[in-house]
Amino acid sequence: MKVIDIASWKRKEHFEFFSKMKSPYFGFTTEVECTKAYEKAKENGHSFFAYYLHKSMVAVNSVEELKLRIVGDQVILYDEVHGGSTIGRADGTFGFSFFHYSEDFETFNQGLQKEIKSVQNSTGLGISNDVLPINHIRHTTIPWNSFSALLHPTNFDPKECIPKITFGKFNIRDGKKFLPVSVEAHHGLADGIHLAKYIEEFQRQLDM
């Protein structure tokens, strides 16, 4: 963990400019090809959701700007960020989940599957966002539809700084599978180039 010296930070003006806005989030929606990743997950008996979620977490942790958080009046760079995701239940509701990041898929997946079972056996929203560590990143999946745009709820808090990543149902075109991805971040902490780096690394991970 490292406290950023805002006074000498190259993003000082960017941070101060966007932090004055009631809604400083920005983002975009795109696609990544997931054909190889889907086949590999199925060949090894893994959940495709778990597989691409892990690849996303690896990509997130490769981009320094997505590990920055606003804590009080400080900007802190965390060594790593962990995962959070909505988990659907059989009754049509969902709950929030939290799981630790590991570069090793098997380790990551064990924790994820345990958390999925816990949420599916609970009611309400599950874990409160108020008790989640700030060094996590929010994921959600819309498995019923693909999408080309997305709208998140917001409380218009300029210090809300946890990035949001959303996945949809993959499309099939010319025999290839394409996963829609929406990514948003606090513009005082990250720019378009940083979100593009995440997408680039996410695609590279899916192609491995």
What does this protein look like?
The protein is α+β, with helices and mostly antiparallel strands. It has a single domain, classed as 2-Layer Sandwich (Chloramphenicol Acetyltransferase), CATH 3.30.559. It is built from five helices and ten strands. Strands 2, 5, 6, 7, 8, 9 and 10 form a seven-stranded mixed sheet that branches. A three-stranded antiparallel sheet has the order 1-4-3, with no helix packed on it. It starts with a strand and ends with a helix.
Topology:
Layout: E1 2-3, H1 12-19, E2 25-33, H2 35-43, H3 48-60, E3 68-71, E4 74-77, E5 82-88, E6 94-99, H4 105-120, E7 136-142, E8 164-168, E9 171-173, E10 176-186, H5 192-207
Parallel strand pairs: 5-7, 7-8
Antiparallel strand pairs: 1-4, 2-10, 3-4, 5-6, 8-10, 9-10
Helix pairs in contact: 3-5
Active site: 187
GO molecular function: chloramphenicol O-acetyltransferase activity
Protein name: Chloramphenicol O-acetyltransferase type A
